[in-house]
Design a protein that fits this description.
Length: about 900
């Protein structure tokens, strides 16, 4: 794949073929955490010291909710204590005050992390005490909201030791909203129960000043020794466990080896902070002898079925089986896409990138220590960009997801911003915040076009879907006083019926409305912000030139798609809502697109015609004329941008201005105080059609000169020199952090993708290579394998795991680098591999799904391995020669050939390059 030097010896290194890696002394790096999750809604994170959290949602945290700073500042963790007779207390998790104090001394514990696809193991040994602990953590695959820890204690000394183990896991058991406000008051709601296996908490109420409700959710910590021996006692109350003056990292009950509480099952305490404190029996360990314990963290919608839980999870043998099941489940999920190149480490790294889109589907953008927003769910862009990866990894489910997602589109071309828990569920705004992100309408067509290319399912465009409706109208410029939440969130006709339009109608609407919604420089208004949420302070006069380019490319591609639809299906006309004819102005009387006033007036006419409802009448329009209208709009945008938004540099190169601020001033250019340039402003003209071929080398040169930093990669922007209250909050961030000048992976990957698309392969590879090197350089990035949201000024990877850039990198590797892509259902092979990506035998291989068949595409170079000097010479499918159908991009294999292959088998395409 992408070449890189071997990871530093002090960093992680891969140890297997399924992304397994190890890392010595992991606790010596701050901010590290690892995801543990399942499809049932259990969402956990775990650090080298067993810190982190376990939750099933914003209002149901089993352990205390936390942000990344809490990982090293909070004393609450999944601790497992061992009192060694004659030697004192030791934390198997490395989480004691004594061990923290020894962290930089020669007497510190030996430790090593091993991890793989959603399993996590830390081995810790104290040579001074003669004991070793191996703690393995998983969230079992399936629907149960359960997390498991297996602790194996081994005597590594020369003499017998007497141990008393105690598991100690704080049971927060309530909403994250109660972490500061009402922290003590909500503890008064706790009802704490003990059973033979552990501690359970079911608060009496769900505390909410808008209306307290009876709570049904229960939380518990349970445990067994070996094959089912129960704990001998419990510490169910935190303050009693830690003692007066004690703490969770030096609790009196462990340090003084106090006796646990025992008694009959039932209510033990009410009104206190709870603890899953489980005391196991004192045991003698001979040299080399081991004891095994399993600790179970569980969340249930009612009181927990403890016998059923323990029967399923409560033994060392059960844990071993579940661990192997977990490994197999995630390996099957990830290995639907595999790469084999000349760099084994890079191929293994890509397995973690491939996993990341699945993690974001399960976590949203929340519930890991770094999170963009913590209340759960995903945003509108997430719905569409996560589907990019799902089209490659889980294509069977994507059609229904896309169809459901279109139900979030409003008739004014904007969309719902509150996403429900169920597919296709959109919720009317509850916070009275009128806001529109101007880029939202551009993404659905990009994703849908990938689906059409992968599937050839043109009928999808003609399937009908409803529209979303709430109190906002005219792109949140007005409120609909007639709207009533009780009436539902579906757009209605004037007669009160739910209106439905085709998916094609939804797409057209999303891309036509913005064309008319322009500012004083005739670019589309920035509104609340675009892709860069940090540009959120230019809602009145700000303009997004970069997304004007994106919308222009969409309009052009839509015109081509309509002509293809006509050619392939014989469809001569389209049925659209009659109000939409106002947006297709060339069908009757063409507007002067140079006139800003004319565009705004036309848009206002449309708003007046479709004021949060429609007539329900549809008109029949010639498909060819609609295509012509879209093409004219697109060409106007391209000419406008090339003529008016090109920044000519004194260095001889140039780039596109990306924005206008709220004072109506152009943002980018060369000024006396320095260069102002954004990477986003270059990506979208390159990704589509706005950048003319002769402009591309100049853009590349300007990016290399102004935005490439050898230490952190391609910056999102140059230093604008202070806050920009007329543009956005991003410039209040320190330069080199997050949206202000960091290496923002999403835009960097998209820049690489755009360069590949436009034929600048070496330049594109350099971009992807830089991202890999930065992420894999543990000495600087301090992150586990994968791609971060961004890399800060110090080179540290930030907001690991949950980033849309992973979908884009996976998409780029499959469709651009390996050139395995669809063309309206047929398979197009167009490899853009460079010589470093072939192995010693001259081979580069990808395994992926296409046409519902698992394919292994093996490229073998018999001559030059330099891109541009080879072409596809021959193709064998399962050993039989395929007649080549050459097109300008590469070769096409008809879908019918692939669909004729047996299902459930791996089919080999041997592609000879010469």
């Amino acid at each position: 794949m992408i070449a890189v030097e071997k990871t530093s010896k002090s960093g992680w290194e891969f140890t297997g073929t399924n992304g397994e890696f190890k890392l010595k002394y992991p606790e010596r790096s701050s901010f590290l955490y690892f995801p543990l999750v399942n499809e049932g809604g259990m969402m956990s994170s775990v650090t080298p010291n067993l810190h982190g959290q376990a939750t099933s949602g914003h209002n149901t945290f089993l352990t205390p909710p936390l942000s990344v700073e809490d990982l090293h500042n909070s004393r609450a963790s999944r601790n497992f204590w061992v009192y060694i007779e004659g030697k004192g207390a030791w934390s198997a998790a490395g989480n004691s005050a004594r061990q923290h104090a020894q962290a930089y001394e020669s007497t510190s514990d030996e430790s090593e992390l091993e991890a793989g696809l959603l399993w996590h193991r830390v081995t810790r040994e104290s040579r001074e005490l003669g004991i070793k602990a191996q703690i393995t953590s998983i969230v079992p695959c399936g629907q149960d909201k359960v997390e498991l820890m297996q602790v194996v204690l081994t005597n590594t000394g020369a003499a017998e030791i007497i141990i008393t183990p105690t598991a100690a896991i704080p049971l927060y058991a309530r909403s994250a909203d109660d972490l500061r406000d009402h922290r003590h008051v909500t503890s008064l709601l706790n009802r704490i129960y003990i059973s033979a296996h552990g501690v359970e908490v079911q608060p009496a109420l769900s505390f909410d000043e808008r209306g307290h409700r009876v709570n049904h959710t229960s939380y518990g910590v349970f445990g067994v020794e070996g094959e089912g021996r129960t704990p001998v006692g419990f510490f169910p109350v935190q303050e009693e466990f830690i003692g007066e003056g004690g703490s969770l990292d030096w609790p009196e009950a462990v340090v003084r080896n106090l006796a646990p509480q025992t008694g009959e099952e039932g209510v033990h305490k009410e009104g206190y902070e709870a603890l899953g404190g489980l005391r196991f029996s004192t045991a003698s360990l001979l040299p080399g002898e081991s004891r095994s314990y399993v600790v179970i963290l569980a969340i249930e919608s009612e009181r927990i079925d403890i016998p059923g839980l323990m029967a399923k999870y409560g033994s060392a043998a059960a844990f071993d089986v579940l661990l192997e099941e977990n490994k197999a489940f995630w390996a099957d999920k990830v290995n639907t896409v595999e790469f084999h190149t000349g760099d084994h480490a890079a191929d293994q790294w890509m397995k973690w990138v491939t996993l990341q889109p699945v993690l974001r589907r399960l976590y949203g953008n929340s519930f890991l220590p770094y999170h963009d927003y913590g209340r759960g769910g995903r945003g509108w862009r997430d719905l569409w960009q996560d589907c990019l990866a799902l089209l490659i990894m889980e294509p069977a489910d994507v059609r229904s997801l896309l169809l459901n997602n279109y139900a979030g589109v409003r008739i004014d071309g904007s969309n719902a911003t509150i996403i429900g828990q169920q597919p296709g569920e959109f919720i009317a705004d509850r916070n009275n915040i009128p806001r529109v992100w101007m880029d939202h309408g551009a993404w659905p067509f990009l994703t849908t076009m990938l689906y059409l290319d992968q599937s050839g399912d043109l009928d999808f465009l003609l399937q009908e879907q409803s529209y979303f409706r709430d109190s906002f109208m005219s792109r949140c410029r007005e409120r609909d006083a007639s709207w009533d939440a009780a009436g539902g969130s579906h757009l209605q006709t004037s007669t009160g019926e739910t209106y439905k339009g085709t998916i094609l109608e939804h797409i057209l609407l999303q891309n036509l409305v913005p064309f008319f919604n322009v500012g004083e420089h005739n670019n589309i208004l920035l509104e609340g912000a675009d892709w860069n949420d940090g540009l959120d302070m230019a809602a009145q006069r700000g303009e997004s030139v970069t997304f004007t380019a994106f919308y222009g490319s969409n309009l052009y591609d839509l015109s081509v798609l309509l002509r293809t639809l006509q050619e392939r299906t014989g469809l001569e006309s389209l049925e659209l809502a009659e109000e939409m004819t106002l947006l297709l102005d060339t069908l009757e009387k063409s507007l002067n697109y140079e006139s800003i006033i004319a565009k705004r007036e036309q848009l206002n006419l449309y708003y007046a015609a479709a004021p949060n409802k429609v007539s329900g009448v549809k008109v029949t329009l010639p498909i060819a004329k609609v295509a012509d209208d879209l093409a004219k709009k697109a060409e106007w945008i391209f000419n406008h941008l090339r003529r008016n938004e090109w920044v000519q540099s004194d260095h001889g190169d140039g780039w596109f201005n990306g924005y206008y601020n709220n004072d109506g001033d152009r943002v980018e250019g060369e000024h006396a105080e320095g260069v102002r340039m954004t990477l986003t402003g270059q990506v979208f003209p390159l990704l589509g059609h706005a950048a003319a071929p002769e402009q591309i080398p100049h853009i590349v040169a300007a990016v290399e000169r102004n935005l490439l930093d050898d230490n952190i990669g391609y910056r999102l922007n140059t230093n604008f020199g202070g806050i920009q209250q007329n543009l956005g909050r991003a410039f209040g961030f320190a330069f080199g952090h997050k949206e202000n000048g960091a290496m923002f992976s999403h835009m960097t990957v998209m820049y690489g993708n755009a360069l590949y698309k436009r034929g600048f392969v070496q330049e594109g590879r350099k971009v992807l290579d830089s991202l890999y090197k930065l992420s894999a350089n543990f000495e600087l990035s301090r992150m586990y394998p994968g791609i971060p949201e961004y890399i800060n000024e110090q080179g540290r990877g930030m907001y690991t795991y949950l980033t849309g850039s992973a979908s884009w990198l996976l998409l780029t590797m499959v469709t651009e680098v390996f050139g395995v892509k669809g063309r309206l259902g047929d398979l197009l092979l167009q490899p853009k591999l460079v010589k470093e990506q072939f192995d010693e035998q001259g081979k580069a291989t990808i395994k992926t799904i296409f046409a519902e068949r698992m394919l292994e595409v093996a490229y073998t170079s018999t001559g030059s391995r330099k891109y541009g000097e080879y072409e596809i010479h021959s193709v064998l499918l399962n050993g039989a020669e395929v007649t080549l159908q050459r097109v300008s991009e590469g070769i096409v294999i008809p879908r019918s050939i692939l669909r004729a292959l047996p299902e459930g088998e791996l089919h080999l395409l041997q592609v000879a390059l010469a």
